[in-house]
Hints:
Radius of gyration: 21 Å
Helix content: 40-55%
Strand content: 5-15%
Order of helices and strands: HHHHHEHEHEHEEH
CATH topology of the largest domain: Four Helix Bundle (Hemerythrin (Met), subunit A)
Strand order of the largest sheet: 2-1-3-4-5
CATH class of the largest domain: Mainly Alpha
Largest sheet: 5 strands, parallel
CATH architecture of the largest domain: Up-down Bundle
Number of domains: 2
CATH superfamily of the largest domain: HPT domain
Amino acid sequence: MSDPGSNHHGKAAQEVVEQLRLEFIDELTETLQSLDMAFDAARNGHRDLRGVITDCRRAAVLLRGQAANFTMHRLATVAHRLDEYLTNAPEIAPPRLWDDVIGYFDLMTRLAQGREDIERERDPATLVRGLPAKLGFDLGDIEIRNVEVLLVMPPGAQTRFVERELQQCGYRVSMMPDSLHAFAMVVQTKPDLVIISAVMPELEGIDLAMALSAMPSTRNIPLAVITSLDKDDESLKLLPKRVPVLFKGASFADDLFKALDNLFLI
């Protein structure tokens, strides 16, 4: 027999959470409207664009965390992509920046308010593929392919090098420096390839690769592990045979090309 007092407290707690969620949506809407005005001012030369971009990235990180707290996972994913989109924004803004940013703001507002009138917004995997490609890398005549690659690697020169190699193949690259958060990202967005650093804080990259390979919902997603470990290291022997290992160093580019070819991504 249920305790009426317990049910009352449970309902009260739900009401508090719902009130906080509604307050977050109001705050998000106001923040995006303010940023929209700031970008418009920068576009017309009345604000420093670099400062506006910094403010936008800071807001995107905060909104991503808050959205995740309220289990608004699609919104959190789009906020993460907005931050990434602006990470390497050039000093001189390309013409597409203004429309791209407005598109991000509009999509985040609609997701927050539950206006899921567009079918593609209901599936995170489809949603991320419709977002603009990153700024900051001159692709020239390279054709952008509809191939999503998630890099699960710590920040640094090696990660930027790997990102550039993949972008030169025309892939859309997203990065996640946290293997625990990457786990949820893979489950939600179903990237076409996940490249994981073997050594990661909290959850080792090899453990992440083994988990993703075993789960029914992710086992068909192509994976690769990048490492500076010796080829005979015992931990690498734990990986499924179908997971290629990319070794840092002179052979990396060849290892990457071979792995992409074997995974039918070239």
